[in-house]
What does this fold into?
Amino acid sequence: MRWPWQRAARTVRCAEPRLLPCATPGIHFEATFAIAWRPALRTRPGLEELVVSRTVARAREIARQFPAIEVRSAQDAVNAELGAVQHTRGTPYRCLTARTELGLSAAARAAVAQRRADEERVQRLRFLRTHLYDYPDLFVLDRIERHGGCPGSEQVADWHRLARSIAASGQWWEPVLAQWESVGRGFTDVELQNRAMLALHDALEALNGKDGPVSLPPDPLPPAHAGGPRA
It folds into this structure.
């Protein structure tokens, strides 16, 4: 209903998509708008641009809360905000209704699909890291199941070494394990292996101070300089 002293309602349609930020970095929604509004009795130039600008700004604040994959939820939330009758005080117009349609460009859809694939792959790798690679025996069984047949002892040893390396990655003792594997290749006798393990254990305990301070070798004597004092 329009009172006799009111101006007729106007409708502006923004066919050219406007970019709205979303919660996914580097990606924007593409939005088109249809806005019904009524100017005040005293108008000014550029009033339609002001209506569009303020409507888009309100939509931008809502859309930025949603990730790119939730484009439909973002559209519903924006329309719920813009669809209510707005009595804009202090402005030379009254916004009656506004509606938007959100979408993603082809490049944005491809980027979202790639990010989802990357996230799923990382989650899968983390699952394998926790439930497979931390257990060398399960890792070896998985390799046997994938490759079939009966692997040789050297192949099994390589798989064990790889699983231990993955499990130890990021731990402080990972370099110690790598050095121990390098040194231990020369110990083929079981008794020598046990004695080497005990020697390594005793050395680490001494270094940690459990058996008292470690006796370090004295520093070498400084070289004699020409022209220095002589005995």
